[in-house]
Amino acid sequence: MATAVLVSGTGTILEAILGAEVPVGVVVADRPCRGLVVAARGGVETVLVDRAEHGGFSPSFDREAYSASLADALEQRGVDLVCMAGFGTVLAASFFERFEGRVLNTHPSLLPAFRGWHAVRDALAAGVTTTGCTVHVATAELDEGPILSQEPVEVRDDDDEATLHERIKAVERRLYPLTILLVRAALARGDEPASLARPEAKD
Ligand code: GRF
Q: 3-state class of 106 per DSSP?
């Protein structure tokens, strides 16, 4: 069985995952991006399941068909754990049904605070003094699902979105690979990823 990483952007978290020697079987992107270059350089199979073939970023984007193509590509490769690492497409509920409990995500806030695409900007706008990152089991609801690990990051007076996000990503690059390795160990024991969630976060 294999671990897949899904990327859309610069792939620096993917780089950290590969650097931590997580056994990654395939890297899939939804658009041409540096993440695919990182994967190829690491000798990992790359697949582009391009949004452009399903309506791209237009209102006619066919989320259902896209999600089915992506799930097919992963199933064909025997993937049993899907790790989103800066993946920019919201997938249909059908995808999460096919990989139930086996999709992980890293998010740049202390969930449940600041869900959504602009978590770092929103934390700054809210004036919080601490934010952070969260690794969780992903579900059809955006940035929901059992929390596996979290770490706080201090907000500095002179932070802008870029500096704060970079400091959060530095933590994600350590926390996400470690959490993925713990999840892989749980799967090897026959346990589901959510079994690693904090007891109060399981419901
Ligand atoms: C990370 O902050 C992740 O939490 C968010 O996108 C960022 C990905 O960074 N979803 P990179 O493309 O791996 O540098």
A: strand
pLDDT in tens, 123-137: 999 999 999 999 999
Alpha-carbon gap, residue 43 to 87, rounded angstroms: 20
CA of 93 to the centre of ligand 1 (A): 22
160, two tokens: 């802008």
d(CA 82, CA 203): 22
107 is catalytic: yes
Q: Nearest to residue 65, comparing CAs of 81, 49, 46?
A: 49
Q: What single DSSP character describes residue 115? A: -
Q: Is the pTM of this model over 0.85?
A: yes
> What is the set of domains in the chain, with CATH numbers?
1-100 (3.40.50.170), 105-191 (3.40.50.170)
Residue 3 sits at the vertex; the CA angle it makes with 40 and 174, to the nearest 5 degrees, is 80
